[in-house]
Amino acid sequence: MKNLIAKKINRLLTSKNSMKIFHFFHYLLGGFNSKKIEVSFEDKKSRLEIIQNIINRKKYQSYLEIGTFKDELFGSVNCNYKIGVDPVSGGNVRKTSDDFFSTNNEKFDLIFIDGLHHYEQVKKDIINSINALNEKGIILMHDCLPRDYYYQAVPRSQYDWNGDTWKAFLEFRVDENVDSYCCYADQGIGIIIKRKNRNKLNIVSKNFKKFNFNTFASNYREYLNLINYDELIQIIDKHE
Ligand SMILES: C[S@@+](CC[C@H](N)C(=O)[O-])C[C@H]1O[C@@H](n2cnc3c(N)ncnc32)[C@H](O)[C@@H]1O
Predict the structure, then answer these.
(1) How far is 146 from 127, CA to CA, in rounded Å?
(2) Is 162 exposed, middle or buried (0-12, 13-18, 19+ CB in 10 A)?
(3) Ligand 1, atom 19: closest residue by C-alpha
(4) Is residue 50 a contact partner of residue 110, using CB atoms and an 8 Å limit?
């Protein structure tokens, strides 16, 4: 019953007409004078290539994916033990990430966060993932590099959409106790490692939810600690 209601609400909010209305409000609220980030992911590695290469290199045994949708990724990742959590479709655990983490006692080597792309939820998913991560594990998260205002505006107002995942990621870029990077590939792959921050971002914000997109767009390389795929692999290989 809960799943059915969630599905119906999601269908209503992401219908063409609802999205058109949201798009109009986003235009008025900031879209009209927003900056663009010039990115192209076409010639970059896919999330599957990145995740699989990390699992193979580190001989990781367990994989957790939050948000599986049609199993495009979850069905292709090759790992000894896989858990995929989604309240609506795909994976092998039909729950929200909050429900899953509230009873989970297992630890994972690689966790991929790609569920509800709203700042508050992504922040919770990151905190819960840090607690569910093996010491030598790694957290990856999708959709950290939106190319313009509408790609990240909540509520969703277009089909191609990253949500405001970047705001939650930024909040951890200023945290002393986790090390974070973003790989310039597949919509921006955030990386979080449980160790002291090696390149802490020095910005102050009382409320990351309200962080200004134009400020982010002007400084995204520094703010995200943007790296390329080869740099990511070097970081992974040295992570012990
Ligand atoms: C972008 S899709 C995931 C795509 C998938 N990871 C892939 O790479 O192919 C986002 C998914 O998150 C799911 N989702 C929404 N809210 C969620 C929540 N609270 N917990 C877990 N998953 C959620 C949606 O049902 C949807 O299937």
Answers:
(1) 22
(2) buried
(3) 96
(4) no
Q: Which pair of tokens denotes residue 146?
A: 């939106």
Spell out the domains of the chain, with CATH numbers in brackets. 2-238 (3.40.50.150)
32 Cα to the center of ligand 1, angstroms: 29
pLDDT in tens, 93-117: 999 999 999 999 999 999 999 999 9
Does residue 179 carry a pLDDT above 70?
A: yes
Distance 99 CA to ligand 1 centre (A): 14
pLDDT number for residue 16: 86
Question: Could you tell me which residues come within 8 angstroms of residue 32 by beta carbon, excluding any fewer than 6 positions away?
Answer: none
For the CA atoms of the chain, what is the radius of gyration? 17
- Convert the pLDDT of each residue in 195-209 to its tens digit: 999 999 999 999 999
